[in-house]
UniProtKB/TrEMBL annotation:
<dbReference type="InterPro" id="IPR036561">
    <property type="entry name" value="MAM33_sf"/>
</dbReference>
<dbReference type="InterPro" id="IPR003428">
    <property type="entry name" value="MAM33"/>
</dbReference>
<protein>
    <recommendedName>
        <fullName>Peptidase M28 domain-containing protein</fullName>
    </recommendedName>
</protein>
<dbReference type="GO" id="GO:0008235">
    <property type="term" value="F:metalloexopeptidase activity"/>
</dbReference>
<feature type="domain" description="Peptidase M28">
    <location>
        <begin position="291"/>
        <end position="425"/>
    </location>
</feature>
<dbReference type="Pfam" id="PF02330">
    <property type="entry name" value="MAM33"/>
</dbReference>
<dbReference type="GO" id="GO:0005759">
    <property type="term" value="C:mitochondrial matrix"/>
</dbReference>
<dbReference type="InterPro" id="IPR045175">
    <property type="entry name" value="M28_fam"/>
</dbReference>
<dbReference type="Pfam" id="PF04389">
    <property type="entry name" value="Peptidase_M28"/>
</dbReference>
<comment type="similarity">
    <text>Belongs to the peptidase M28 family. M28B subfamily.</text>
</comment>
<comment type="similarity">
    <text>Belongs to the MAM33 family.</text>
</comment>
<dbReference type="GO" id="GO:0006508">
    <property type="term" value="P:proteolysis"/>
</dbReference>
<dbReference type="InterPro" id="IPR007484">
    <property type="entry name" value="Peptidase_M28"/>
</dbReference>
Amino acid sequence: MFFTSNVLSMVGRQFTRKSFIHTVSMIRQPLPAMISSSSKYLIQKQQQQQQQRSFVSNVSLNKREQELTDFLASEIDLERESQKKPLPKMSDWTITNTGSDIVLFKKFNNEEITIKANVCYSVDAANPDADNGQMVCEVIDGNLYDLLMNVLEGRGIDQQFAKKLIEYSTIYEHNLYVAKYLQQYGDFERFGQVDYRPLGSSTATSTSIMIGTNVFHIDPTFSPITSIDVLNSTIRQFFSRSRHWSDDKIYLRDLREALKDKFLSYGLKTAFHVFKTEYTQDKMKRQTATNIIAILPGKYRGTPKDEIYLIGAHYDTVRRSPGIDDNGSGSAAVLEMARLLTRHKCYFNKTIIFTLFDLEEEYLKGSKYFVQQYLIPTEIRKNQAKFNGAYIMDMLLAYNTTESSQSLRDFWPTLPAFVEEIQDAGSRGNFMTAWSRRNIDQDLFFFLEKNWKNKQIYPLKLMDPPLPTLSHEVSKNWSKYSKYGTFARSDHASFWYPIERDTTFRSILLSDLGPWRKDMSFHYHRYGDDERWLRYENLRFMKNTIDSLLATIIDIGDGYCFAQKI
C-alpha cells in the first residue's frame, strides 16, 4: 500500500419473457382474492375420466387471475404433449431417464464418461436467453453447451453432440412447476387439486459430468473454497522477499516469469504489460516495469457484448521489505482465485481479468499505466468491451481480536460514523474493509456484502468517503477534498481517477487496515513484514476474504462452476 497523504493532490494535478412476466409483476402484490379459497377459482373437469389435466374456472376471474390460469393451462398442455415423445437416440451412447434426469453413458479410449443432466436447470429472471426465467424448473441452460465443449473436448464430444444434448430439454420437457413467486403465499395446495404440485424449493438443480473417477458437477450455488495450505505455500514461494525494482533485478525478472508461468498453467491467456515510467521515488529517471495480465474469457469475449471485471493486486514492495502482508497477501489471493476458478471449470458470461501490478509503491504507476495503455485502448476502444469494475486487494493478513488493537486516528475527520461503529465494538482489528466512493461504486460493494462469509467472525466494514466522480472535480475543489487523500493510496484509485480526466471506472479496495492495526503498524513497510504473519489465524482471516470474493465474482460475473471431486 502506497503511503502518502498527497495522492489526491497528485491525482488532481498530474493525472490530469411475455405475458407471464406481467402476471408475475402483479403476483408480487397482495393476492387476498386468489389465495382465500382453493376451490373457488380452479375446478377439475372430468380429469380422471380423460386422464388429462387442465385449468378451468366457472367463476369470473379478474385480469391477472385469468392470465395466470391461461398460462398454467398452456404449460400443462405442453407438458402432456412432450411426455408422449420418446427420447431421441445418440450413436454410441446409452441413454436412460429417471424422473427429470437424463443420463448418458459411453466408453471412449478405455475411459468411462457419464453425463447426468436435469431439465430443471436454470432459474434466472434477468437472463434474456432463458425460456422463462420465472419457472422453478427450466430447460437446460444454453451455457451447458459451452461447458460440455470445454470439459469434454478431445473425448469424442463434438459440436453436433453438444447441440443435441441441449435439444433434449425441448424434446423431453419433464414436469414444469410454477412456484418461485407464489411460494411466499403458501398457496401450493390450490394447485394440488389438479396434481400440479410445485417443488419444495425454488433452487435450481444441476448437471454433472463424470470422466473416469473425476466428477464435474454444475451447481448454481457452488463457489470454490480456498486452501490455506496453498496460500501459505504460494506466499512463501513467490512473495517472501523484497520485490522492489532496485533491490535484486535478476530475482525480480525470474519472479515475473514464474508468475506468468503460473497463470499459463491454469490455462489462462497471459501476457506481460511492459511500460516505462516518467520517474520513480528513488531516482529521477525512467524505469522499465512489468504488469502481469491473465484473462479468463467470458461467453461474449471478442464481441461488443463483452463485459469485464478485474481482480487485481500489486506484487512490488518498498525497498528491503519482504512484503508478506504488503502485498504478498493480495498477490497470492489473485493467484488462488485464478487457480480455483480454472480448476473448477468455472464458466462466465462476463470476462474476468486477473492482474498483478508493478510499482504500486511508486505513486501507483503500474495500475495507472495499465488503465492508460491497456484497459482503455485495448479492451474498451479496440475490443469495444464494457468495463464493469475492479476488485483490488492490498494487505489481507493483519488480524487482531484484542480490544483497542485498531487505531482510528486518521479516519475521525472523514468518516466519524465508521469510527464510532468500530469503537462501539471495542476497537478490535478483526474486520476487513472495503473502500468505495459513496454512491458511485456501490454496486460492487452490494455484491460483495451479499456474498460475504462468516460476517459475525470476520465483519466487512464499508469505508465510503464522499469523493467526486472525476479527477478534475478534485483539482477544482482541492480545499474540500484534500482531507480524503488517504483513500487514494492504492491501485483502486487508478480506476477512480485515470489519467484521462473525463473518465472514471468503478473500483473497490479490500484492505485489512494494516498500517493502523496493532502489531502490523510497527512493521509496515519494514523488515518485520515477514513470515510471522503466516500464522493460522491470519491465514484463516485472509481465506475468508478470498472465499467471499470468489462467491462475489461468480455472482456478479454471471457464472457457475463444476464442483469437481477428485
